[in-house]
Write a structure and sequence with these properties.
With 426 residues, this protein is an alpha/beta fold. The chain folds into two domains: 187 residues, Aspartate Aminotransferase, domain 1, CATH 3.90.1150.140; 211 residues, 3-Layer(aba) Sandwich (Rossmann fold), CATH 3.40.50.12170. Helices cover 34% and strands 14% of the residues. The protein contains 14 helices and 13 strands. The strands form three sheets. The chain has a seven-stranded mixed sheet with strand order 3-4-2-1-5-6-9, sandwiched between helices. Helix 5 packs across helix 6. The protein starts with a helix and ends in a 7-residue tail after the last helix.
C-alpha cells in the first residue's frame, strides 16, 4: 500500500504540474524545505566532529558551487572559517570551481580572487593532479555532488585524484552526498573496460546506485578500478565522512535539501533525473533533449516531426514507469515532456534506447550507420560497450531493445550484489 501511495503521488504531482504548465518540480526537483533538512551531508558531519579529522594538516579542496552544507553555505567558506583547518589550495572539476565553464571546454589554473588561493584545474592540461599540485598539501578533501550516472565526470575526477594522492602518499577525505536517484536503482549497460575514459572510469551499470563515498570505497577495495599498483592501492589512505540520516530508498525530494546546480546543464534535480533517461538517446541523430530550455534532459523534440507524433510514438513503446505529455517550453517550442509515473518500476536508461530505435524509423537513413568513427568511439565510451552499437547500426529500426534491456538488468543485479559490501548506508 505504501508503494502504491508513493507512486500515485508521483503521478498526481506530475499531472498537476502539467496542468499549470510548469514541470520543473516534476519528480526529483525539490526546492528549499520549510523545516530543517532530514539529511546531514558529509560537510555537516565533519563540522559536528569539530573538523578534528583535518587538524594539523594542510588541506586541498576539490569542489564546485554544489559543494555546500545543508544550510547552503559553501564548503570553501566553511573550511576557511573553521578553527584548526588550514586550507592552502583548491581544485576544480569540469565546469570549474564556480561552475560557470562550458561542458567539454578546458579550464585554466588561476588564483581565486575571493580567497587568494591557487585553483588547480582538473579539466584542462591535466585531469589527474600532478605531484607539483599536491606538493603543498597533506590531505585532499573532495566534496562533489554526483547525479547517479556513470558518464557524469565528477566520479572520474574523484578517482583520478585518488590515484594521484595514493601515489604521492597524500590522504583523501571524501565528504559524502546523496545519490539523487537513491541507492537502490541500478540500471543500464555495464562499462566494458575497453572503453574506460573520462566519461566512464569504473566498471558499473550506467545508473550505479552508489554515493560518491561508496564509489571511492569500492575503488579502494576492488582490484582494477584505480590505475595504480596493488601495493599503492592497499596502502592508499582514504577516509569517508558519511552522511547522517540518508537511507538508500531516499530520492532527492526525500532529503529536504535544496538542489544547487551541479553544472550548467543540471539546474534542477528534475534535470538530474532526466540526464540518465535521455542523455544517451540524444547523443546522435535528430532527437534533442531540451538543453538550453527550462526543461533540460526532460523535453524531447525531433527535427521535422510534430510533438504530438513523437508523443504518440513514444507512448506506443509501453516503456514502464514513464508517461509523456505535449507541452511548450520557455522558448515557445512545443515538445514532449518526460514524466515519471512509477519510479519503482522505472528502468531509467530504457527510454534512450527506444529513442535511438525511433530515430532510425523517422530518419531518412540510419544515423548510427553513417556516423563518423570519432562519433562512434565517443558514443561507445558513454554507453560503455560496442554491443548495442553493433545492433543499432546494423538493424536500425529493427533493433531489439527489449533483449538488451533484459541483459543489462541481469548484469545490474549482479553488480548491485557485488557492490553491497561497500554500502555505507543500509
Amino acid at each position: 500500500m505504501a508503494r502504491f501511495l508513493r507512486n500515485f503521488l508521483f503521478f498526481c504531482m506530475a499531472v498537476a504540474l502539467c496542468a499549470f504548465g510548469s514541470f520543473a518540480a516534476a519528480v526529483g526537483n525539490h526546492s528549499a524545505s520549510a523545516g530543517s533538512p532530514k539529511v546531514l551531508l558529509g560537510i555537516d558531519v565533519l563540522e559536528k566532529l569539530g573538523f578534528e579529522p583535518l587538524f594539523g594538516k594542510r588541506i586541498g579542496l576539490l569542489t564546485n558551487p554544489a559543494g555546500v552544507n545543508s544550510r547552503g553555505i559553501s564548503t570553501v567558506d566553511v573550511l576557511r572559517r573553521a578553527r584548526g583547518v588550514t586550507l592552502v589550495a583548491m581544485f576544480g572539476p569540469e565546469h570549474g570551481i564556480y561552475g560557470n565553464e562550458k561542458a567539454e571546454v578546458p579550464v585554466l589554473d588561476k588564483i581565486d580572487s575571493r580567497t587568494g588561493l591557487p585553483v588547480f584545474s582538473l579539466y584542462g592540461k591535466y585531469r589527474k593532479p600532478t605531484a607539483q599540485m599536491l606538493g603543498k598539501i597533506d590531505a585532499l578533501v573532495i566534496d562533489l555532488q554526483d547525479v547517479g550516472a556513470r558518464s557524469y565526470t565528477y566520479a572520474s575526477c574523484m578517482l583520478l585524484a585518488m590515484e594521484a594522492c595514493f601515489e604521492a602518499g597524500k590522504e583523501v577525505v571524501v565528504l559524502d552526498r546523496p545519490n539523487p536517484l537513491g541507492g537502490l536503482k541500478v540500471d543500464g549497460p555495464m562499462l566494458d573496460m575497453e572503453f574506460k575514459s573520462y566519461v566512464g572510469m569504473f566498471p558499473a551499470p550506467y545508473v550505479h546506485g552508489l554515493t560518491m563515498g561508496e564509489i571511492a570505497s569500492m575503488a579502494k577495495g576492488t582490484q582494477g578500478w584505480l590505475g595504480v599498483s596493488e601495493k599503492t592501492r592497499r596502502r592508499g589512505n582514504l577516509r569517508i565522512i558519511k552522511m547522517s540520516g540518508w537511507r538508500r530508498n531516499m530520492l532527492w525530494a526525500d532529503t529536504g535539501l535544496r538542489w544547487v546546480p551541479t553544472s550548467p546543464a543540471i539546474p534542477t534535480s528534475a534535470a538530474a533525473f532526466g540526464y540518465s533517461m535521455t542523455g544517451l538517446g540524444a547523443q546522435l541523430g535528430d532527437f534533442r533533449h531540451g538543453y538550453g530550455s527550462n526543461y533540460p534532459f526532460r523535453f524531447l523534440t525531433f527535427k521535422g516531426k510534430s510533438a504530438r507524433e513523437i508523443c504518440a510514438r513514444l507512448k506506443a513503446f509501453g516503456i514502464r514507469g514513464l508517461d509523456f505529455k505535449v507541452v511548450k517550453n520557455n522558448l515557445g517550442q512545443e515538445g514532449v515532456y518526460v514524466l515519471v509515473a512509477d519510479f519503482d518500476s522505472l528502468r531509467p536508461t530504457e527510454l534512450s534506447f527506444y529513442m535511438m530505435k525511433l530515430a532510425c524509423e523517422l530518419s531518412r537513413g540510419n544515423p548510427f550507420l553513417s556516423a563518423k568513427n570519432s562519433a562512434q568511439l565517443l558514443y561507445n565510451k558513454h554507453v560503455g560497450s560496442k554491443d548495442w552499437w553493433n545492433e543499432i547500426s546494423s538493424k536500425g529500426a529493427r533493433a531489439n531493445v527489449g533483449k538488451f534491456v533484459e541483459k543489462w538488468s541481469a548484469e545490474a543485479k549482479k553488480f548491485q550484489e557485488k557492490s553491497r559490501k561497500f554500502w555505507l548506508y543500509k
